[in-house]
Amino acid sequence: MPLPSYAIGVMEASVYAPEVFARGLPSALQPSEGHTAPVTGTAVATSPMLSLQAIGLSFGGVVALADIDLSVRSGEIRAIIGPNGAGKSSLINVISGVYRPDRGQVQLAGIDYAQVPTQRLAHLGVARTFQNLALFKGLSVLDNVATGLAYKVRSNFAGQVLGIGRSRGERRETRSRADQILEFLDLTAVRDRLAGTLPYGLRKRVELARALVAEPRLLLLDEPMAGMTSGEKSEMAAFVRAARDRFATTVVLIEHDVGVVMGLSDRVAVLDHGRKIADGTPDEVRNDQRVIDAYLGVASDNEDGAGI
Ligand SMILES: Nc1ncnc2c1ncn2[C@@H]1O[C@H](COP(=O)(O)OP(=O)(O)OP(=O)(O)O)[C@@H](O)[C@H]1O
Fold first, then answer.
1. What is the pLDDT of residues 184-206, one digit of tens each?
2. Disulfide check for 68: which of 55, 117, 196, 215 has CB 3.0–4.6 Å away?
3. Complex-level ipTM
4. Is the CB of 62 under 6 A from ligand 1?
């Protein structure tokens, strides 16, 4: 049973940057020219936002991850791809602290995870979405998105929903920020709908909104386009890119649709049988013989049947 993203989508107060909203939010469907463009008008920083060194993880006798190194630059969109069972989910679960690796180090902006209890990851600015939808079907879209801030405010979420006591001001603030993210992701028209009544593609976008509302510095997306039509996938890719560009969020995603991944990502790591077999720009990876041998042969199993 996946954890709901609100459980870890909580940030330090410093993550909230009112000036970002004050600048006004653009239509998310007008991404900047070229996805490698810098987030804030400067070059993408070279110091890693996330660094994995020699990660190993086994389940009983099954080696899920073996000696994985991964470096993710600040502001980068970084994809992890590979055939079924390659270790992608295991790796994202290691990054998000759901799994503790048997070996190796995970560092977020230089801070070793081993020194940070899992529940504090959110306070470091990590948020994620899940492969399977984890929205509250009986809550409105707005309230679902507001849960992305639930642990950031002093009153509890029930207090905010009910609008009682000290919660009233926080509730106003939370809902206002949720509204701004809804506008950014072009979801304002469905803000009062119950999440469970939305079509699948929109629900995936609401999940993105919930993960994004606290402006995480690291956003982990677990198959954000799974089950979408090709039109919905392109739209989602544009939203992810726009979110990176606007909020300077570093994005790590796993996704089966290789065609979408290649168009969206700055760099791509390829896993096979728990090992990293290639790592580079989409062009480099596309032309890597080991990737072609290990992955191209199963590319027709991808959701859209696209090769790499
Ligand atoms: N909780 C678990 N218990 C036992 N084995 C596991 C567990 N999670 C993953 N594995 C095993 O670890 C290996 C890697 O699995 P993982 O789910 O990380 O791959 P994946 O690339 O995400 O696959 P898929 O694309 O099918 O989701 C597989 O052999 C899998 O069976």
1. 999 999 999 999 999 999 999 99
2. 55
3. 0.97
4. yes
